[in-house]
Structures are given as structure tokens and as C-alpha cells.
Amino acid sequence: QVNVVESGGGLVQAGESLRLSCAASGNIFRINDVGWYRQAPGKQRELVARITRSGNTNYLDSVKGRFTIARDSAETTAYLQMNSLQPEDTGLYYCNVVALDRILRSVAAWGQGTQVTVSS
Q1: What would the pLDDT profile of 70-100 be if each residue is shown by its tens digit?
Q2: pLDDT for residue 33 is more than 90
Q3: Residue 34 confidence (pLDDT) above 90
Q4: Angstrom distance (rounded) from CA 81 to CA 48
Q5: Whole-number average pLDDT of the chain
Q6: Are 39 and 94 in contact (CB under 8 A)?
Q7: CA distances from 40 to 26, 29, 35, 116 (A)
Q8: At a CB cut-off of 8 Å and minimum separation 6, what does 19 contact?
Q9: What is the percent of the chain with per-residue pLDDT over 70, rounded to a whole number?
Q10: DSSP letters along the chain, please?
Q11: For residues 96 and 36, what is the distance between their CA atoms, to the nearest angstrom?
């Protein structure tokens, strides 16, 4: 079993910053991709940013230049640095981890989410 825990959400004003963390643990041989998704009330969950094992990244168009995804050297924690936050960035942010377990099966796990609320 792979466990994913997000943290770092909160209530901020427009223009401020937050840094989200995603910690993965459990039956992990290697983490491949990590993605941050968000879901606003009444809307579908959308991919905000993703980072591959090789470090390639991709971003939702509306966050390019403001958000940065990164992984630590141990590759068990990923971060989403969010600058210049806007009210439309409000939502529940989820981390998705795609990994190989210790018998090399591909597994995907989600965290419970962390709330980000941006006031105008």
C-alpha cells in the first residue's frame, strides 16, 4: 500500500503564496510521476502540474509562470510552490503518486487533499 499525505494549504489573500507538500510512504520501490490536481466546487478535478522521474514538468496554462512543481532528492516528497495566487486558484488540491511497489507492480495513490482558499 502506498500512502500519500498533502499539507500546506490555507487561506490567503490574492497575490500571496503557498507551498504545498506531498509525502509518499509505504510499499514503494520507486516513485515515477507525481501530479498535483485541484477541484473547485461544482467543477471537475483538473491537473495543475506534473513532474516525471526524469524531472520533466508540465503545467495547466493558467498557472504557468506562477506555480512550480519540484521533488526532493530522496524523491519521496514533492512540492507545489504557488505564487501570485488568485481567487480562481481556490480548490481542494490533491496529490497523485504513480510508483512501482517492491515487487515492481505499478501503483497509483491519491491523498486526501489540502484546501486552498484565496480571497480577493
Answers
A1: 998 777 899 999 999 999 999 999 999 999 9
A2: yes
A3: yes
A4: 12
A5: 96
A6: yes
A7: 29, 33, 17, 10
A8: 8, 79, 80, 81, 82
A9: 100
A10: -EEEEEE--EEEETT--EEEEEEEEES-SEEEEEEEEEE-TTS--EEEEEE-TT--EEE-GGGTTTEEEEE-TTSSEEEEEE-S--GGG-EEEEEEEEEE-TT--EEEEE---EEEEEE-
A11: 6
C-alpha cell, 66: 506562477
Give me 55's grid cell. Answer: 524531472
83 φ, ψ (degrees, to nearest 5): -110, 160
Identify the residue whose cell numbers are 490555507: 10
